[in-house]
Every structure is written in structure tokens, then in C-alpha cells.
Amino acid sequence: MDLITADFETYYSKDYSLSKMTTEEYIRDPQFEVVGVSVKVNNGAPEWASGTMGQIKKYLQGFNWSGSMMLAHNTRFDGAIMSWHFGIQPKALADTMHMARALHGVEASASLKAVAERYGVGVKGTEVVRAMGKRRLDFTDEELSTYGDYCINDVNLTFKLFTKMVKKFPKKELKLIDATLRMFTDPILVLDAGRLHAHLAAVKERKEMLLTEAGIGDKKDLMSNGKFALMLNMLGVTPPMKISPATGKEAFAFAKNDEAFKALLEHDDDRVQSLVAARLGTKSTLEETRTQRFIDIASRGALPVPVRYYAAHTGRWGGDDKINLQNLPSRGPNAKSLKKAILAPEGHTIIEADSAQIEARVLAWLAGQEDLVSAFTNREDVYKKMASTIYGVPVDEVTKDQRFVGKTTILGAGYGMGAVKFQAQLQGFGFEMPLDEARRVINIYREANWNISQLWRGAQNMLRYMAQGDRLDFGRVGVLQVDPSNKAIILPSGLPMFYHGLFAVEEEKGPQCYYKVRRGDNKIYGGKVVENVCQGIARCIIGEQMILIGKRYRVVLTVHDSIVCCVPDAEVAEARQYVEDCMRWTPEWAAGLPVDCESGVAKSYGECG
DNA sequence: ATGCATCGCGCG
DNA sequence: AAAGCGCGCGATGCAT
Fewer beta carbons below 10 Å: N end or C end of chain A? Predict the structure, then answer.
């Protein structure tokens, strides 16, 4: 397979630019114009081509894309141009920006300039600054030639970076970069514009009603904390306060989970009730702006899915391009409205498969908590089992409430949560538990899952060693590789999870560890490392499963523990079986880890659940 | 005007 | 000894 490196230079102006618009919007805009493109086949000399969009298309179609891997730096951009404007679908897509993010951590700059400097492969030029506001025909021949040199330099840098990075880059992860990019560059999901318009109208109407009932003329009085506090004062209510965890200063407690604020929804004065309800129901504008974005995309075509490879510290994917498809509402007042507007194309069906309790299973397995692993393997009700231990009753006599406590314990206490937070979490779910009882439950969890508690201690010790540059392994043998010289834990994918600049300091409470993030220093401790690695390992498993599914069907989205794909109507039954089989499969390095899944099938994403 | 920190909230 | 965690978006409020 040939490797073709490509880089487009495109028209932009003050307002028509990637800093003002989403990538999808920019590339699909009528103003879009290629000024020129550089193409380099394998290690050959790059060519620079400029001309009309028709000429560029003809030029590009002269390459063997269907037998080649296309490489760029930020291929979501160049790959989308290749696909949407020139109808070219390379055999595979590669991206040095994504590779850099995975290899060097999400905190480090992944810009071509920064990565080229890091690898010492050359320096990025600056000619592009004179291109602002200029159409292709506005450039003189000399300017175009200079621009071409700049572009050729970028292509050479990108190619050199790839040859260096690919040596240490896992092959499966290259496949995942390809799969991720393809969700965007080769969109097939369709948006239901009618449903979106109806939803937007409904959201607006609901908000109007809330404002009318509260007698609010100007919405600004609700949005600003200060103004809202004044309105409460006018009704004789002292605004509830809390201490900001970020600054330690006093702040208004106006969030939907602030107990004192929630209590105002039951206030004797109806006007207070309406006011608080209006604030809670209208404060966030996300649903409206996002629905509008969907409507706008629908007017331009299919839905390119923007998910970012290796966005999280733990390797998980993240949202991108101003629409986070990983947090579409599935509960609450807007439950599934947007998801239901995402449709399979004509003749196709959506399959969504969710991995069952993947992180809890990984935790038990990594810790060697064999009784819990067996319970998962034997498909026992682990939440009931936990409740049975907590309440000292036989498993088949566990009540609904007791099971709920068992579930919250299994899902919450596995990473070191203390009694106070556990009690607060239960209360958030509307379940009252005295602090003493919360302490008792947390202690029972830690005793019953001794290996998991040991894993936290192991991780804590590993941190102390790593801070000094020493290596100490932890967890199930052979799963994680501790790399103290790079302050990283190598996940089973072969990719690192960094604790950049890890250091330990003596504090009143004892020694504490921190690592460097963009905002400053991030506290890290055993339980948190365990959470991070469980999330990272779960991501490795989902990744491998995604590759398997992708061999037969179009994967269109992933949301951490779920994989969404699109299959022909005629194959739905066998496809569903195949997808479930894939999600019950584990890689060789995860032998003994019991995984399971649930799946749903529908014409829309929202109806799969 | 623009950037940054913070908060709130959606998902997992 | 104890400590749940991971994102992205949009808004406000403040600094530049």
C-alpha cells in the first residue's frame, strides 16, 4: 500500500475561517475554495498543484487512492475535503496529529509546528499569513509559488514525522485512527430536519412558559447570579450559599443539585417556586444551540461525526467540532430528542451495542478480586450480592432499596470513595443514609473486596516510586507496564497514559503526589490511578472490539462503552449477532476478563436503547 | 474585543 | 489515613 501525504491550502478570510466556524461548516460553505494542494507519494518529491476546483479534482483523481493510505496533519480537515469536494475515499486514513496526541499525551501541543520541533525534522514556514482574504486568483504567480513551497514543506514535515512515529505506533491504533476519521470524512447518518425543528420549537415553548409563570420579562435577570440573587431577595428569600471547591470562596448555591436551592422549589411562596423553576429550566441554552447546529448541518447534508481520537488522559475518545455527540441527553426533559433525529440512511438500520459494567469488571479483574470476577463470569447479580453482604441477608431476599445501595456501592466505592461523599451521592439519588451507616457500608466494601483496596495501595506505592524515577509494578501481572523515566503507565494498547512531571510533596496530611496539567498541578493518588487505568483498559478493549466490528460493518460512533454501527436492513439479525459476539470477545492479554453486552436495533439512534 | 477561569450539566 | 473518575460546550465574570 502506498502512502500519500497531502495538504490543502484553502481560501479563508476574517469571518470565513476555521477559528470562526466548525470544520464541517467551513468545508461545506459555498465560499470554500482550494488555493492549492501538495501531494507526496511515498518518499518521492512532493508536487504542488493549483487551479480551478475542477482541475484540482482531475489532478487528484490521477492518484491511486483506493490502494493508498492518505496521510495529513489533522486529516479530519484534509480528508473531508478529499471526500466531500473530490469524491475520493482513500483505502486508509492516517494522521500525525492524532498519533502525536497518543504518543506524547493530551497536554502537549500536537500542532505541526510543535511536533516537528519535538522530532527535529525541520521548521514550519510562515508564508500562510499573507493568504488572509485572498482567493486563488488574487495571488500572483510568484505568491502562489511561495505558497506552494510552504505547503510542500508541510507535506515533507508530515511525512518525516509519520516515518518516525509509525515505528513505535501500535498497528491496531492506526486502524482506530482510520476508523475515527472515517466517521467524519465519510458520513452516512442522516438528520431528521422535521423532528429537529419540532424539538427546537418545543424547547423554546417550554422555556417561554417557565418565564411567563415566573413573571420574568428579561431573561438576563435569571442568567446572571447577581441579578437572580436580587430577585430572590425581593421575594424575601436569602440566596443559599456554598463554598467553591475551586477557589475556597463563598458562592451562590444555584445548581440543580444544591439541596438548599432544590428546597426552594417547595417554598411556601408560589412566586419563589416559579422563579427557581424558571432559573433551573431556562439557564442552560445548550439544547437550543445544539438543536440549531443539527438543523444547520441537516441543511448541508449527512451528519459527519466529529469524535476526537485519544482526547482524554486515559485514551478515551472525546467530542469535537462544537457538537459533542458523546453527551446527547438520554434522560430528563430532553431525553433522546436529538438522538431520535439521527437516522440510518435509506435501506439501513442502526445497531447500538453497550458493554455491560465494563469498568467494574476490569477493576475486579485487574485487582484479582476473584470472587467478584467469578460472579461476573457466572452472570450473577453482583449488586444483589453486594447488598447481601452489606445487610447480612440471603441474596434472594435482598429488597429493591438494598440492591440499589449495593449497586451504588459497587459502582462508586471501587475507586476509594469515602463515607461522606458516598452519603452525598446516595442523597443525590434521593436516598437518605446516616453517616455512620455510610461508614459501615464503605468499610464492608473494602473488607469484602480486599484485593481492590490492595490495588489502591499498590497504585499509591507505584506513584511514590515513580515520582522518584523508580519502577514498581501493580495490578494483574503483565497488564500494565510502569515506565518511570517517562512518568507513564503503558496501557495494553501499547500507548502511554502520562503523569507528566509527577512529584511528591510533604503536606500536613502526609506525602501527596501531583502531576502537571495545563491548568497547573493535578492531585493524584492510588484510587484515582486505579480509576484511570480501569478507564484506559476498558478503552483498549472497546477499541479492539471496534476494529473487529469495523471489519464487517460501518462503525459510526463510539460513546465510551458503546459502539454504534450502521448495517443494511437485510442483514440486521446476523449483524446484531456479529456485533454482540465482538463485544463479548476479549483480546488475548485480557484472558479471564468476563465482558458482556446489550444491544438495540432501530432506524434512529434514539430508539436503539 | 478577546482570553481565561469557573461553574453547571449533559454523557460515560 | 483518606481521596470516585473521564470528557466538551456554553454561560458568566473578570482580567487584559
Answer: N
